[in-house]
Amino acid sequence: MVFDYIDGGADDEVTLRRNAARFRDYELLWDVLADVSAIDTSANVLGQAVSAPIIIAPTASSRLFNPRAGERAVARAAHAHGLLYSASTLASTSIEEIARETPGPKLFQIYVWKDRGLVREILQRAKAAGFAGIVLTVDTPVAGNRERDPRNRFSIPPKVSLHTAAQALARPGYLFDLTTTPSIRAENFAHLAGGVGSIVDFINTQFDRSVTWRDAAWMREQWDGAFAIKGVGRPSDAAQCIDIGADAVWVSNHGGRQLDTAPATIDLLTPIADAVAGRGQIILDGGVRRGSDIAKALALGASAVAIGRPYLWGLAASGELGVRRALEILTSELERTMALLGRTRIDALGPDIIANAQDAEMRSRHIER
Predict the structure, then answer these.
(1) Which of 79, 81, 163, 254 is catalytic?
(2) Is 81 a known active-site residue?
(3) ∠ Cα 41 347 26 (to 5°)
(4) How many domains, in total, are found in the chain?
(5) What's the farthest any 2 CA atoms get from each other in the chain?
(6) Which residue segment(s) compose the domain that 211 sits in?
């Protein structure tokens, strides 16, 4: 049930598969006889100096995948690699505890809840804990139809039934960790009267389907640090994000977990980069599995990529060491790809390294129309 929660997507999982598959269709063209003795992957993302343009994307309830450490393990691993960590508003570890685990650069992801007082409170807590930026997620007016979860009788926190108990008994180490650690819950809201119960119930209760651009602008006014809007797919929406004061547009289809048959995010990148026109940064997530994927996204206009499943698989497999290994794989692959391309700096990864850039642009234009 835990594997399927990480691995699965919405409906028929078309977008889930397409996100990764479309990266394979973009071909790389290299320079020869270039001095690549010193590769520099450092970058500046949302005002933060990082060792590579890779963001740890916000994912809810990381203790579900590693009950003993969860978000703390991920935050420590990100800091060890000099990368930007993004905490979910529905994290199973509090804002304050995450901040104590790492002095590294951090973002906090949030939604516009129905209870605006709750929004103000959590923004104040994030600021007091030293988070440098806010990520407003806007592609979740309702939860997507993730069919693997009800098939597994899955919930957050996990509920005991014959079905879930049978699965847990097959993994006694996980079961031991789960039963000997505190209950998995939305820790940032544990202080509310009665807590929040099921995270899905909290989402359905607090998600505001009436949210508009006016609300996003209100959120920008509440936060004086870096501000990104996540879940953007249309160039016109990307431009409006910048118009209301966002510092970054986060191109995302929620990892294929919301609207199925949405285009792969890599295909959305070129027209969105044109619409932003250098007025802000662009972050891309969805389907990033290789260092070469990172290079392709940067070449097509992204300032950084964000990863979710790759580090969650590492977390579930081996805790903090697993996350560190996942990040090591991606960063070393990015360095190797850059060397093979004949490019030594991140800002040297332009559209000229994409061999079939014209075909890619034509596809992007079709999607834009």
Answers:
(1) 254
(2) no
(3) 90
(4) 1
(5) 66
(6) 2-368
